[in-house]
Each structure stands twice: as C-alpha cells, then as structure tokens.
Specification:
Shape: globular
Number of strands: 9
Radius of gyration: 15 Å
Helix content: 25-40%
Structural class: alpha+beta
Number of helices: 5
CATH topology: Aminopeptidase
Distance between the termini: 23 Å
Strand content: 25-35%
CATH superfamily: Gcn5-related N-acetyltransferase (GNAT)
CATH class: Alpha Beta
Length: 174
C-alpha cells in the first residue's frame, strides 16, 4: 500500500497475529501501553485493525522491511472511534509500534511521516492527532519531530486508567 525508502506499509492480515504477538507484546514494548496482554487481546487488536481497514479503507498497517519482507511493527492512521466523550473522538489518529529489536533506527519516524502524508493525500482530515502519557518520552518526542504541536487544552484522562493523563499532539493539514 505505501512504500518508503526502507519500509512497506500494508493492511494487517489474519496470518500476522502470531508474529505481532511475538514482536509487539513484550514487557519493554508494552511498558507505556498498559502492560503485556493476553494472546486473545493481541488477536482482538489485529482484528480491530482488519475491521478498520475494511470500514474506512485505512488503519494502522503492518510495517515490513522492504529489503527482507520482515514484519517489524505497525503504523498508520485510524479513526479514533473508542474515545466517547473525549475531544479526540472521531479524529484521524496517527499511531505506531515498532518492535524493540528495531528501535533507534528511525523506522517509526519514516513510517509515521509516510502515514501522515497518505492521510493528507487520501482523506479530507483537517488534522491528524496522536496522544501518549507524559512519561512516554520517545513517543511524544517523535510527535514533535513529525511537526505535531502539543495541545494541552485537549489533554484527557485515559478511559482504561482515569488516573493517567494523555497528552494530545496535533498537526494541521498543510
């Protein structure tokens, strides 16, 4: 679907589930995302990606290395449909998860830039947003490198853990 210099972003498939569970459901990866999940929860996450793709024509896609075809994570744009009563409900949300073995190589930045460019070219979204916890420094720094601006007026408490504040970052359509 999308190709960059080093990566290929494509819709998630049923056959991706075992590999996603192995590379994305690690203590290090999930430390800022609510902790390691059960296999059923990871499968449900991939089912949601597949359903979003079918419904909207886009979602968080599987990220592969172009050179080898190895699956290294997920990245893309989705409609934030699970935030009732929150300011981000219904917005175009950018998100990424790159396997720990591939951290520090710029893959998340490369995939996220391509995803946001895809959103501008293929949707009428006035903005793309992302959010994370204040202690997820790598994530909010990536948001800043993408040109996203912090919007403290839009911050909200996480529905899964109301004691956790989520910082909202936004980039407007150029």
């Amino acid at each position: 679907m999308i190709e960059t210099e080093r990566l290929r972003l494509r819709p998630c498939r049923e056959s991706d589930k075992p590999l996603f569970a192995a590379i994305l459901n690690t203590p290090g990866m999930m430390a800022k995302l609510g902790g390691v999940r059960s296999a059923a929860q990871i499968d449900a996450l991939i089912d949601k990606r597949i359903a979003d793709q079918a419904l909207h024509g886009f979602s968080y896609w599987a990220v592969e290395l172009r050179e080898t075809g190895a699956l290294i994570g997920t990245c893309g744009i989705r409609i934030a449909s699970n935030y009732p009563g929150k300011p981000v409900q219904g917005w175009h949300e950018a998100g990424w998860r790159i396997a720990e073995a591939h951290w520090g190589r710029g893959y998340a930045l490369e995939a996220a830039r391509a995803s946001i460019a895809w959103a501008w070219a293929n949707t009428d979204a006035p903005l793309v947003a992302a959010w994370t916890t204040p202690d997820n420094i790598a994530s909010w720094r990536l948001m800043e490198r993408l040109g996203m601006m912090r919007r403290a007026d839009l911050d909200f408490n996480d529905l899964r853990d109301p004691a956790t504040l989520l910082r909202v970052y936004v980039i407007e359509r150029p």
